[in-house]
Design a protein that fits this description.
This protein is mostly helical and 100 residues long. It is 75% helix and 0% strand. The chain contains six helices and no strands. Helix 5 runs antiparallel to helix 6.
Length: 100
């Protein structure tokens, strides 16, 4: 269900409906098991959280952006996996709000 909901994230974002995309992304995240989501669905969680960070950046939602980016930084396997969230933070001048 979370992956199906993610399709709504992509669709909303393609129409520049970033607020809706954020809501869909957060719903997708809430549908995943918090204890195993990164170990069992790494690529999906990475894509979902990086996309959420980008959507929050576009909307100027700095707290949500920082939270999503921190989730990526805390759980990513490589620096390359963190790049989209780093860029989202840079776009908003929020580099100092994360601990990654």
């Amino acid at each position: 269900l979370a992956k199906l909901n993610y399709k709504a994230v992509v669709r909303a974002a393609s129409f520049s409906a970033f607020i809706a995309a954020i809501q869909y992304a957060e719903t997708s995240i809430s549908l995943l098991d918090k204890n195993t989501m990164w170990t069992e669905n790494y690529e999906f969680c990475l894509e979902l959280h990086n996309t959420l960070a980008e959507m929050c950046s576009y909307c100027g939602q700095i707290e949500r952006l920082s939270s999503s980016a921190k989730e990526v930084f805390d759980n990513s396997k490589t620096i390359e996996d963190q790049l989209r969230s780093h860029f989202a933070l840079l776009e908003r001048g929020s580099v100092d709000t994360h601990t990654g």
